[in-house]
Write a structure and sequence with these properties.
The complex is a heterodimer of chains A (404) and B (234).
Chain A (H helix, E strand, L loop, with lengths): L1 H9 L3 H41 L2 E5 L2 H4 L10 H8 L4 E16 L2 E10 L1 H8 L5 E4 L9 E4 H7 L6 E7 L5 E12 L4 H4 L2 E5 H7 L8 E6 L5 H12 L3 E5 H4 L1 H38 L2 H10 L3 H36 L2 E2 L4 H7 L5 E2 L5 H17 L2 H9 L2 H6 L1
Parallel strand pairs in A: 3-8, 5-7
Antiparallel strand pairs in A: 1-9, 1-10, 2-3, 2-6, 2-9, 4-7, 5-8, 6-7, 11-12
Helix pairs in contact in A: 1-13, 2-11, 2-13, 2-15, 13-15, 13-16
Chain B lengths: L3 E10 L6 E11 L4 E5 L6 H8 L7 E6 L2 E2 L5 H11 E4 L11 H12 L3 H14 L15 H14 L4 E5 L7 H18 L2 E6 L2 H4 L4 E6 L2 E7 L8
Parallel strand pairs in B: 3-8, 3-9, 6-7, 7-8
Antiparallel strand pairs in B: 1-2, 1-4, 4-5, 9-10
Classes of the chains: A alpha+beta (404), B alpha/beta (234).
The complex binds adenosine-5'-triphosphate and magnesium ion (MG).
Magnesium ion binds next to helix 1 of chain B.
């Protein structure tokens, strides 16, 4: 009977209740869709950024990130690499030997980042082959090098020419080699386009006398959500023998960009929450004050305040759930739709994305946690408005209420 | 033992600039099965007196015994329970829960008392029948006339099997004819079930039907007369 009473009380003023429920509904919808797009876009930004080069995390020698010396290179044999690849949610592990050395062609000499890669594994991760603008990939030409387009222009070198690498190998051994240019690769980022040279890992290990050693092992995951789990598993596997670098540490700019955007999103959300809170509060307040006389009568005839509070709280609960559940249901439908039919980004922003090798698309996350969180927050905000009738009834003097 | 005993009861309101003594040294005994009207001009203290008897307001002097119990000793929550189990209330207006049908309104008070569903329903129907609303049990208050609403309120007041019914101007919003009919019905319940009624009123036609008339003036009892003794109304 209490439930019936609350439910019917809720519909005393249909229009008002519907408006209040609709505002809760809209709050959930807007919050979920907005967050879904933000979180989805971050995940996409992160996944395309880490795919670009660094991976979600890297196993490195202790101190390598700071001094980039071959002396901090590490020995991770195939068995160890396979063990890391077996960690749940790890999709691939990509070994590299990175070294700085001089590259000369004719009279021109430049500093380059020479990177030894496993051609197949590397291509699976970074799609290096797709960046070829000239020549052939390392799988067809394992003896050759790929030179980034900017660097090739500076050196005036083209496919078929041979360049000289000259630098320091492991423990100060001189590293020198003359290698044919088998392909030119183009990077959208100038810093890389003017500096990168790729060759096979075995070739690089030979030239720099590192004999089976690598400087880093990049790790790719199925989803950024599983990063912590993998990080923990990997940490216990490598212990403090090696250092684990996450993409956050390797790409602080990206982290900052996301944090900034996220903060502005959260501010919008908070404003939305406040607006909704006041809207619902107004309704609950009206529903309460206009019944002061009735409450007075009920307490007079012997209804305990606690029971009356229970009835009014139930009214708010009904209102909140009505809005939140329908909001969550519709949001789920909307984000699921957009997850599979993403919205293309048009206008001036589009070319920027394309330049970075990122599809210009708004991505939507279907993370159930997001839906549940937003629905819960709105639900809780709505439920706090039940405090108004609570205090109202606690302080109600039945005699005054009936005659006031 | 009288049903209700008032000893030197006073109530002074200090809320206004000048303190108002709404009830002045009232001593009164009301026996079971009485049918008492509290009358007096506006502001004479009728409502205040009924509120004190009903435990809705606290006296500033004197004491109230209901069935031998000093109600001043009850704590706030116990007082609510006391009202629920011992007193039936009929107010001038806003008596009923508008989203409940007549039957549900009557049932609700029994729900608060913890009466089982089957018993509630049965008693609600019986009571509505006895106040002449057997055909309106499923109507909502807004669909009922003012007189019918007050009848439902009386049925609800009786539903809790109280020791007595307090009714503050139950007929104030009714036309004189309807008011008379409501009073006849209350008088009938008084005769048939021996239910004690204490009601306040301005209406001479209502006063006429009482068996005891307590007249207040400036908060004090001016007269206390019995009438209609042994008389049978129609
Ligand atoms: N809550 C209050 N605060 C201050 N004064 C009050 C309060 N309630 C009643 N009074 C005063 O007490 C006196 C008695 O009021 P009461 O309402 O009991 O009279 P009444 O006989 O019921 O009048 P009416 O016939 O108009 O209903 C009046 O002077 C009134 O102004
Ligand atoms: Mg009055």
């Amino acid at each position: 009977m209490y439930l019936t009473l609350s439910w019917r009380n809720l519909w005393r003023n249909k229009k008002r209740t519907l408006i209040a429920a609709a505002s809760v509904f809209l709050a959930v919808l807007v919050a979920v869709v907005m967050r879904s797009m933000q979180i989805g876009s971050y995940a996409y930004m992160i996944s395309s950024s880490v795919k670009f080069y660094t991976g979600y995390m890297q196993v490195q020698g202790n101190g390598y990130w700071e001094n980039r010396s071959l002396n901090n290179s590490i020995m991770l044999d195939e068995k160890q690499q396979a063990e890391i690849a077996k960690i749940p949610h790890v999709t691939s592990v990509v070994p590299r030997l990175e070294a700085f050395s001089l590259v000369s062609f004719g009279k021109v000499t430049k500093v380059a980042q020479v990177t030894g890669v496993d051609p197949l594994v590397e291509n699976n991760m970074t799609e290096l082959k797709k960046r070829l603008v000239q020549g052939s990939y390392l799988t067809e030409n394992p003896e050759g090098v790929l030179i980034a387009q900017g660097l090739a222009d500076l050196l005036h070198v083209s496919v078929g020419d041979s360049v000289v690498l000259y630098g320091q190998g492991y423990h100060g051994v001189i590293a020198a080699a003359m290698l044919p240019v088998s392909g030119i690769v183009k990077f959208p980022i100038a810093r890389m386009n003017n500096a990168m040279v790729f060759l096979t890992l075995t070739n690089a290990q030979d030239i720099f006398s590192t004999d089976g050693r690598i400087t880093s092992l990049a790790v790719m995951l199925d989803d950024v959500r599983n990063q912590t789990a993998v990080f923990n598993a990997l940490s216990s596997l490598v212990g403090d023998k090696y250092t684990l670098m996450t993409w956050e540490e390797m790409m602080p700019d990206l982290v900052q960009g996301i944090a900034l955007d996220n903060a502005s999103g959260l501010i919008m959300l908070i404003i939305l929450y406040i607006v909704i809170a006041f809207g619902v509060f107004g309704t609950v307040m009206m529903m309460t004050t206009e019944r002061a006389k009735e409450f007075g009568v009920l307490i007079s005839v012997g209804m305990k305040r606690k029971r009356l509070i229970w009835v009014t709280t139930l009214e708010t609960v009904f209102l909140a759930f009505l809005g939140a559940i329908s909001g969550a249901a519709v949001s789920l439908a909307v984000i699921t739709y957009f997850h599979y039919h993403p919205i293309p980004i048009t206008g001036s922003a589009a070319p920027v994305f394309e330049l970075l090798g990122v599809r210009p698309i708004f991505y939507f996350s279907t993370d159930p946690g997001l839906l549940i969180n937003q629905a819960l927050v709105v639900l809780l905000i709505t439920l706090t408005t039940a405090l108004y009738p609570l205090f109202f009834i606690k302080r109600l003097q039945p005699v005054q209420a009936m005659h006031g | 033992m009288p049903l209700i005993e008032l000893h030197d009861l006073s109530k002074t309101y200090n809320t206004a600039a000048v303190p108002v003594q709404a009830v002045k040294n009232v001593s009164l005994q009301i026996e079971k099965q009485e049918f008492t009207a509290i009358v007096g001009p506006s502001g004479s203290g009728k409502t205040t007196l009924l509120n004190l008897i009903g435990g809705l307001d606290k006296p500033t002097g004197g004491s109230i015994f209901v069935e031998g119990k000093d109600i001043a000793t009850l704590k706030a929550n116990d007082l609510i329970d006391f009202r629920l189990h011992h007193i039936g209330f009929v107010f001038q207006a806003y008596n009923l829960i508008p989203v409940f049908t007549a039957k549900e309104n009557v049932e609700f008070i029994m729900l608060l008392q913890g009466v089982s569903r089957a018993k509630r329903e049965q008693r609600a129907l019986e009571l509505l029948e006895s106040v002449g609303l057997g055909d309106k049990v499923n109507s909502f208050p807004p669909q009922l006339s003012g007189g019918q609403q007050q009848r439902v309120a009386v049925a609800r007041a009786l539903a809790s099997r109280p020791s007595f019914v307090l009714a503050d101007e139950p007929t104030a919003n009714l036309d004189s004819h309807t008011a008379g009919a409501l009073l006849d019905m209350m008088a009938q319940l008084n005769r048939e079930y021996g239910m004690t009624f204490i009601f306040s009123t301005h209406d001479p036609r209502v006063i006429k039907r009482a068996r005891r008339v307590v007249t207040l003036e400036d908060g004090a009892v001016k007269s206390d007369v019995r009438q209609n003794e042994g008389k049978r109304e129609t």
